[in-house]
Specification:
Layout: H1 3-8, H2 12-28, H3 34-47, H4 53-89, H5 96-109, H6 111-117, H7 121-133, H8 138-166, H9 168-173, H10 177-212
InterPro entries: DedA_domain, VTT_dom
Membrane topology: Multi-pass membrane protein
Family: Belongs to the DedA family.
């Protein structure tokens, strides 16, 4: 069976559910490739008429908003011990350096950190739980959460679907193109996360060295 014929047999509802669940779990605080799944599903919708991009975008937005809200409630109840537990379970994503970077973003930008964090791989995982831990007023969190979910999930779906339609002939000839684009998105997100992690770690080491450095002795007067 040709891959195009096989893709036509993929139930649309399974694609909608996969996108909503993966993005929801990522927003809740579980490190999953939500952006890669969304991009891949949108490229699939661009080449398969039975997958509705409007329903796909709606499921993505719903997963983002609901997942972030659940993460907020968990973070508000769990507090700092929750971050410590996550650091032990997922040291690559919830290390002390990553938590410190996210906390500085929240202290500097407040509710805008929730909105902007939707577009950054590291903050996308932290936004909900950390907002709860830091006891951000829920109404502020909800506004930023809903707006961020609509702009990120809805905007990503619209842009990728439009690009996919423009390149529809290529997608039909080369069914692997969607996978290549998704992998490029994922690689870019991973490199950005590693760069931010190294930068945060270097800043933390510098701060620790400055705190532990002993003051130079003051010469005794004559």
């Amino acid at each position: 069976m040709h891959i195009e014929e096989w893709l036509e047999t993929v139930p649309a509802v399974s694609v909608y559910l996969l996108v909503g669940i993966v993005i929801g779990l990522e927003s809740l605080g579980i490190p999953l490739p939500g952006e890669i799944v969304l991009v891949s599903a949108t490229l699939l919708a661009a080449s398969q008429d039975h997958i509705n991009p409007y329903i796909l975008g709606t499921c993505a937005v719903a997963g983002a908003v609901i997942g972030d809200s659940i993460g907020y409630l968990i973070g508000r109840k769990g507090g700092q011990p929750l971050l410590a537990w996550l650091g032990r379970k997922f040291p690559k994503h919830f290390s002390a350096e990553h938590v410190a970077t996210a906390e500085r973003s929240f202290q500097k930008w407040g509710m805008w950190a929730v909105f902007v964090g939707r577009f950054i791989a590291l903050l996308r995982i932290f936004a909900g739980p950390l907002a709860g831990v830091l006891r951000m007023p829920y109404w502020k969190f909800l506004i930023a959460n809903v707006l961020g979910g609509i702009v990120w999930a809805g905007g990503t779906t619209a842009v990728i679907y439009s690009l996919g339609k423009v390149a529809e002939d290529w997608l039909k000839r080369f069914s692997w193109l969607g996978l290549v684009l998704a992998l490029l998105f994922g690689l870019g997100s991973m490199l950005v996360m590693k760069w931010r992690s190294k930068k945060a770690k270097a800043a933390a080491v510098t701060a620790a060295d400055s705190e532990t450095a002993e003051p130079e002795p003051v010469p005794a007067g004559d």
